[in-house]
Amino acid sequence: MIRFLLHSAFFLDNLILIDPHDGGSIGLPRPEVKASLILITHNHYDHNAYEIIPHETVKLKYYGEFTYKNYTIKGIKAYHDKEKGKRRGETAIYKITSPDGKTYVHLGDLGHLLDEKLVEELKNPDYLMIPVGGVITINPSEAIKLIKALNPKVVFPMHYWVKGHYMPLDPIEPFLQLVNNEGIKILQINKPEVNEETVEKGTVMYFNNIY
Questions:
Q1: CATH number of 2-207, picked from 2.60.40.10, 3.30.160.250, 3.40.980.10, 3.60.15.10
Q2: Measuring CA to CA, how many Å separate 171 from each of 9, 21, 84, 196, 197?
Q3: Of 6, 63, 112, 139, which has the fewest Cβ atoms less than 10 A away?
Q4: pTM of the predicted model, to two decimals?
């Protein structure tokens, strides 16, 4: 199960929460979940609101590999900008492998394209969560380049502007137009979660009208 809690927050299998925001500080609904493990890609206010979420364990900008309840989680260093973090700091990429072998890659607030070594390490995931709103992360055209390089089965765009959002990000439409130009199928999801039975491989799935 993958539940989208807006911005960059995803809840996996009712167990692992990635990048929770507090809702109010960015103009969006507050996440209302209980998590066993919280993974935070970087310590910015719109990604690090673990204190409002009941939880057992938190990993903040974690680099390295560990096992949690039969999930294998690897944190990989990346940057929030194209100057190796000089402008906005570092961000972790999380690669999560579930007990049944499904792989999830959450790119955090990635601000640059990946080198060949990282592409090789991350490619062919089942699910890719990628920022597409530009301004302070990669832009839509860069996101398309990474999607082609990483070859995920399913793409979930994140970190873009929606109605009510306080952050000056770009909306999702420019990204979706590029996706359409590439001939990739787009599926709009009108509820906040999907599971293995409701995802469709080879697609970009985006959540709309969910709050």
A1: 3.60.15.10
A2: 17, 19, 26, 27, 28
A3: 63
A4: 0.96
